[in-house]
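To the structural biology subgroup,

Please find below the input and predicted structure for YrdB family protein, which we are adding to the shared reference set this quarter. The sequence is reproduced verbatim from the submission form. If anyone notices a discrepancy with their own records, reply to this email rather than editing the shared folder directly, so we keep one authoritative version.
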Amino acid sequence: MVKSVLFYFIPLLVFAVINNVVEVLSWPYYLVLLVAFLVFQLARIRYPKDAIPPIAKITQAAFYILTVATIFRDQYLDPLIINILLGIGLGLVIIELLQTKKKPA
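Predicted structure (tokenized):
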């Protein structure tokens, strides 16, 4: 459980730091974002391939949107919009973790 939580929160933290600290994104930052994106995708391994809950699919879709928005931040978006998307993503992750928490037998 702890490992899967890290797969969610570390990429969100990386996106937040890059968005709020880096003024202009360049290729090394894009590589870091790509690695963070791939780590977030690894969070899906906690579910069986044919039994991914809907909230997990929604969370993944929100992270896709966050990733694309972050990539185009310098050309089209304000960092505040990325922070809002980060907040939405964090909220969805928390909801997913609460809903998919294993119940004691």
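Summary notes: The helical segments are 2-21, 27-41, 54-71, 73-76, 79-99. The mean pLDDT is 88.

Regards,
Lab coordination
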